Amino acid sequence: MAGHASGLRTIRPVSYQETDSRFRTVNDANGMGRALMEQCDPADPAYRQAAGSCIAFAEGTVTPEQVRADFIQALTSAGVFVREG
Question: What global pTM score does this model have?
Answer without folding.
Answer: 0.88
